[in-house]
Design goal:
The protein is of the alpha+beta class. It has 2 domains: 13-144 and 315-360, Periplasmic binding protein-like II (D-Maltodextrin-Binding Protein, domain 2); 146-312 and 390-426, Periplasmic binding protein-like II (D-Maltodextrin-Binding Protein, domain 2), CATH 3.40.190. Helix content is 45%, strand content 13%. The chain contains 20 helices and 14 strands. It has helices at residues 44-58, 71-83, 96-104, 116-120, 124-127, 153-159, 167-180, 193-207, 210-216, 226-240, 257-263, 275-283, 285-290, 327-339, 344-352, 363-367, 372-384, 392-395, 398-413, 418-426, and strands at 5-8, 36-40, 65-69, 90-93, 131-132, 135-136, 139-140, 145-152, 183-186, 267-273, 293-296, 311-314, 318-321, 388-390. Strands 1, 8, 9, 10, 11, 12 and 14 form a 7-stranded mixed β-sheet that branches. A 3-stranded antiparallel β-sheet has the order 4-13-7, covered by helices on one side. Helix 8 (193-207) packs across helix 10 (226-240) and helix 8 (193-207) crosses helix 19 (398-413). It is globular. This is Carbohydrate ABC transporter substrate-binding protein (CUT1 family). Residues 1-25 form the signal peptide. Keywords: Signal. InterPro entries: Bact_solute-bd_prot1, SBP.
């Protein structure tokens, strides 16, 4: 029975300038420019690149140039490119505050009418993230991405303990693994954003979705909500208890280092997104074939107001069409979205690599895959969740993102108190 915990067996993701990039997007010479797209590295993005190759073969007159980037580098470069009018034709985004900024700056186009048929095939709660005031400016383009707890079953067996389901059990597991010389959790602290997964899950479990919704709504002193303060206290409780690899500040997520620590048995668990699964299939095949990878939901908090079935993460990545692209480039982008996206080969390729597209009625396709357990588990998480909280760095106003990451990093390193975190973040709330 898979329920909230799953043990898996398998058969079968730095700042920089735009200078020197080959893709010129809408800012290039209209006579020589061609439609382009930037994607991320590894995992499901390999399937995305293959999909563009298939499109280019079928549509040579609308052939896309595709360039890939590491996650953190992409986030910096796309903002520079969009702001300077040099964005690629198709812009990958995470919706939330970033999409709102694009819409308010007239950087992306209204694609409501052109994507109507596509959106009818997709999960409504995911599609809604691409809308601003009822108008569609972005559509999901890859997999639903809930954050979950990955663990190494062999490490747990050797410790003689069960996978924790609530906070008290989690603290007990930390103590046991510490005694055995195993890091209870790995954490890609060098990338900062994985720390948000802990902050957002804890806040939701303690105070329910309302706590962070007040932040997104821009309410005064919203960061001082008791649930957020307690979440920061529990984070520091974990750090003080030795829950994380002491070298976590130098571990980065772009190379999947945190997940590799679990695969190598150096850490027992890692809190990460569903995209980690497909990358482990590619990068740690021996571990995946061993059947020792398991997944479960984030532990409940006794007395907390949040629903333990609620999840955090990214509903998907989304495509938007650049308003600075030429008319020909925009048409190519729209044709790709409306005529090609989530074709049968694309969907099958995603499922084969452990990724779930945000389509309705996938149960039969999932059951036919060679290893349906993980896919069924993740698909169920999304379908059953009463609330799906968008990642904090994407949900907040873009002007707050850097301060959020830096202040949370200081909470983890213990250089500021939970109250100082709240005070610092309250100061960043945009004024009306």
């Amino acid at each position: 029975m898979w329920g909230r915990k799953a043990r898996l067996s398998t058969a079968v993701l730095a700042a920089g300038s735009l200078l020197g990039l080959s893709a010129c997007g809408g800012g290039g010479d209209a006579e020589t420019a061609e439609p382009d797209a930037w994607v991320l590295n590894g995992g499901v993005w390999t399937v995305v690149e293959e999909d563009f190759e298939a499109w280019n073969e079928e549509n040579p007159e609308q052939s896309f140039t595709v360039e890939s980037f590491a996650n953190d580098i992409y986030k910096d470069r796309i903002r520079t490119a969009v702001g300077s009018g040099e964005a690629p034709t198709l812009i990958v985004g995470w919706t939330g505050g970033g999409l709102l900024e694009y819409v308010e700056g007239d950087y992306v186009t209204d694609i409501t009418e052109e994507t109507a048929e596509l959106r009818e095939r997709l999960i409504d709660s995911v599609v809604a993230n691409g809308e601003v005031d009822g108008t569609t400016y972005a559509v999901p383009m890859n997999n639903v991405q809930p954050v979950m707890m990955y663990y190494n079953q062999e490490v747990f067996d050797e410790a003689g303990i069960e996978v924790p389901t609530d906070w008290d059990e989690l603290l007990e597991a930390v103590e046991v693994f510490q005694d055995q010389g195993v890091h209870p959790f790995s954490l890609a602290g060098g990338s900062l954003w994985p720390m948000l997964m802990w902050a957002s899950y804890l806040t939701d479990r303690i105070g329910g979705p309302e706590a962070f919704e007040a932040v997104v709504a821009g309410e005064p002193e919203a960061w001082s909500h008791p649930a957020i303060i307690e979440a920061m206290e529990r984070i520091q409780e974990l750090v003080d208890a030795g829950a994380f690899d002491p070298g976590f500040a130098s571990v980065v997520a772009d190379n999947n280092e945190d997940a590799h620590l679990v695969a190598d048995g150096l850490s027992a668990m890692v809190l990460q997104g569903s995209w980690v699964y497909s990358r482990l299939l590619e990068e740690s095949p021996d571990f995946m074939e061993s059947g020792n990878l398991g997944v479960t939901t984030f532990p409940s908090i006794p007395g907390g107001a949040g629903d333990p079935e609620s999840i955090v993460g990214n509903p998907a990545n989304f495509w938007s069409v650049s308003a600075n692209a030429t008319q020909e480039e925009q048409q190519a982008g729209i044709d790709y979205l409306s005529e090609w996206l989530f074709n049968d080969d694309y969907v099958d390729g995603m499922l084969a690599t452990g990724n779930i597209p945000p389509l309705t009625g996938l149960e039969d396709k999932i059951a036919e895959t060679e290893d349906p357990e993980f896919l069924d588990f993740a698909y169920g998480m999304v379908q059953d969740a009463p609330n799906f909280q968008l990642s904090w760095d994407q949900a907040v106003d873009p002007s707050q993102e850097r301060a959020l990451l830096e202040n949370l990093g200081q909470v983890f390193e213990g250089s500021i108190t939970p109250e100082e975190f709240a005070e610092n973040m309250n100061a960043t709330q945009p004024s009306d």
